[in-house]
Automatic annotation (TrEMBL):
Organism field: Anisodus acutangulus
Pfam families, A to Z: Arm, U-box
Name of this chain's protein: RING-type E3 ubiquitin transferase
InterPro entries with a match to the protein in the record: ARM-like (IPR011989), ARM-type_fold (IPR016024), Armadillo (IPR000225), Ubox_domain (IPR003613), Znf_RING/FYVE/PHD (IPR013083)
Entry keywords, A to Z: Repeat, Transferase, Ubl conjugation pathway
Chain segments annotated as coiled-coil in the UniProt record: none
UniProt-listed PANTHER family: U BOX DOMAIN-CONTAINING (PTHR23315), U-BOX DOMAIN-CONTAINING PROTEIN 38 (PTHR23315:SF276)
GO annotation, biological process: protein ubiquitination
EC number: 2.3.2.27
């Protein structure tokens, strides 16, 4: 340890031959650098972000009046987390305003204190801090909010489906001429032609009150959005996609006028944004744009479909719901069906049908139904092993009403029939008709339609139907089923009866081979082909 006091030995002198110790004091002046080091003060608490704990680079005032670093606010919004303040309240992050006065104060303090000016904080560093401060119950509380909202939407959708309003083009009916989405022999079902993720009211992702811009006559309407989408500031991008989502939620004219090649091109990168607020609202805005009939082909030709597939594979949960809804909406257009299948949407949709949220699964099922109205997509889906997957879901009554629609389409092609029969589809469908009393009439009717398609042109159907005791179930359908179900059940019973009579006739006309070999039967014509006088007959 350094001391300014040093003890030194005295020199010999005066001939005394003695020595004595002497104390000398050395005074050192500290350098100016070390002086500033000790004089340096910590920044005032009001200049620090309450979440990140460092000097704020871009301070913003939130709706509840507190000031935070902008990145901290964005991270909290992305995680759906509201930290608790010292006074016990929670901040409201719905709106933010730059705090220019505080930013000037921070820079002035740094200059006077010779401190380094704050740099933009790293998003992931802030995220790790926020996650560490999130209590264990917070995440579960946040996750419980979405299902409550979804249940409300599902109940509303269910009511609309069960009581379809007259002349409402949002719902499907057999007489509708808006989209040709029902193929021959396919089941008729009054399902909605709008994704379940669509809502005409504000959602949780657009809770902030953002003013929709008004466009002058001298500039095109998409100029504002294109400019905002290309900005580097993530906050500006998010506000722009929220504004676009609100503008196109209910305004049909806005959907058509804003869906330009320039806007779609600028929107593409935002669909794959790593920021939840940007990605979710961008995909939701695309869903709104896709609701206009004239936009469906335009969106697919703009190259949007691969982005939607990527979101469906690994996007944020709410983004996946909107991606499935967007693909379903685009698949309603006949000209898009083949293209969407070629671009690789079938496998992600099949996976989402099993593992997504209820809204994702609902729209994935309907997207698969519309896409499999095209033969090429049926073959692709069969090659992906869809037969076992779909029948497995039917066994557990999982999304049975939607899944059976896809099964009906697959049963219409030879590849589909073979794969479904290999997966024991007859027994599964008959089991649903026998024991699925809890299912609605339309689901049971579609099971009969699927059996009817499987019975056509298949020699294997008879044996499998006999093992599953199909005749008994079909007789029950004839007695208590709907008119369409009764008609198909009667046709199958008649066809099966004819086959039984034909087999009995063939048994009666069996060749007496023993008599032929012994020479007791000669010059007699025995039927081996279709008739006794057919070319395939053999004379003995």
């Amino acid at each position: 340890m350094y001391s300014p006091f040093r003890k030194v030995k005295g020199e010999r002198g005066g001939g005394h031959g003695s020595s004595k110790s002497m104390w000398k004091i050395f005074i050192y002046r500290s350098s100016s650098s070390s002086s500033s080091k000790f004089d340096k003060k910590d920044p005032p608490k009001e200049l620090l972000c309450p979440i990140y704990g460092s000097l704020m680079f871009d301070p913003v005032v939130v709706s509840s009046g507190q000031t935070f670093e902008r990145t901290s606010v964005q991270v909290c919004k992305d995680l759906g987390f509201k930290p608790q303040l010292p006074n016990g309240s929670n901040p409201d992050f719905s709106n933010v305003i730059p705090n220019l006065a505080l930013r000037t104060t921070i820079l002035s303090w740094c200059e006077k204190s010779r401190a380094e000016k704050p740099q933009p904080p790293d998003y992931y560093a802030v995220e790790s801090i926020v996650r560490a401060s999130m209590p264990s119950t917070s995440s579960s509380t946040i996750k419980e909010e979405d299902p409550r909202i979804r249940v409300s939407n599902r109940e509303l959708l269910k009511c609309v489906m069960e009581n379809p309003p007259k002349n409402n083009h949002h719902l499907y009916s057999p007489s509708s001429s808006e989209e040709s989405v029902i193929a021959n022999n396919s089941p008729l079902l009054p399902f909605t032609t709008r994704p379940s993720c669509y809502s005409s009211t504000s959602s949780q992702s657009t809770s902030s009150e953002i003013e929709v811009p008004s466009f002058g006559s001298t500039s095109s309407e998409d100029d504002y959005y294109v400019a905002q989408f290309k900005k580097l500031d993530v906050y500006d991008q998010e506000q722009a996609v929220i504004s676009l989502r609100k503008s196109t939620r209910t305004d049909e004219e806005a959907r058509v006028s804003l869906c330009t090649p320039r806007l779609l091109s600028a929107l593409k990168p935002l669909l794959l944004s790593r920021y939840a607020g940007v990605q979710t609202n961008a995909v939701a805005a695309l869903v709104n744009l896709s609701l206009a009939e004239v936009n469906k082909v335009k969106i697919v030709r703009a190259g949007i479909t691969p982005m939607l597939i990527d979101v469906l594979k690994g996007g944020f949960e709410e983004s996946q719901e909107h991606a499935a809804g967007a693909i379903f909406s685009l698949a309603l257009e006949d000209d898009n069906k083949t293209a969407i299948g070629v671009l690789g949407a079938l496998q992600p949709l099949l996976h989402a049908l099993r593992s997504g949220t209820e809204r994702t699964r609902h729209d994935s099922a309907l997207a698969l139904y519309h896409l499999t109205l095209v033969q090429s997509n049926r073959v692709k889906l069969i090659k992906l092993g869809a037969a076992n997957t779909l029948l497995g879901m039917l066994k557990t009554r999982d999304m049975a009403g939607r899944v059976v629609l896809v099964v009906c389409n697959l049963a219409m092609c030879q590849e589909g029939k073979t794969a479904l029969l290999d997966a024991n589809a007859v027994e599964v469908l008959v089991g649903i008709l026998r024991n699925g009393s809890e299912l609605d009439e339309s689901t049971r009717e579609n099971c009969v339609a699927a059996l009817y398609s499987l019975s056509h042109g298949s020699l294997r159907f008879k044996g499998m139907a006999k093992e599953a005791k199909t005749v008994e179930v079909l007789q029950m359908v004839v007695e208590r089923g709907s008119e369409r179900a009764k008609e198909k059940a009667k046709r199958m019973l008649v066809a099966m009866r004819r086959r039984v009579l034909k087999d009995e006739e063939e048994d009666e006309q069996e060749v007496d081979w023993e008599g032929v070999l012994e020479g007791r039967v000669s010059q007699t014509r025995y039927r081996v082909g279709r008739t006794t006088h057919n070319r395939n007959s053999t004379e003995f």
